[in-house]
Amino acid sequence: xxxxxxxxxxxxxxxxxxxxxxxxxxxxxxxxxxxxxxxxxxxxxxxxxxxxxxxxxxxxxxxxxxxxxxxxxxxxxxxxxxxxxxxxxxxxxxxxxxxxxxxxxxxxxxxxxxxxxxxxxxxxxxxxxxxxxxxxxxx
Length: 139
Known about the structure:
Elements: H1 4-10, H2 13-37, H3 42-47, H4 51-74, H5 78-103, H6 107-112, H7 116-137
Helix pairs in contact: 2-4, 2-5, 4-5, 4-7, 5-7
């Protein structure tokens, strides 16, 4: 049996582990920054089974990880990856504030009340922003 394909494949294990580890760290940083930036307490609401908060936060997490995945795929160095990971954090926070200031000023109050439509709309805005962000990074 020829083990060459397996051993050649495993040479990428170290970079894989580094990128996954950095990604987990960036996702944790994103979650912390995003929760500080919003006017509502996502975790407390989710712990109380607030579906609107869970949907909005899940949308923002996916909206963040899409460009993060593109950055991992296209970055020439780890530093470039980290820079684009931070840029994606800023973009998602800006999306929240843009949405809150221009589209639905009371979105956080609505989410706190468990209004699912507000959570879906904010989650969709985060996803849309993340998709555009990811596409722009790939250019």
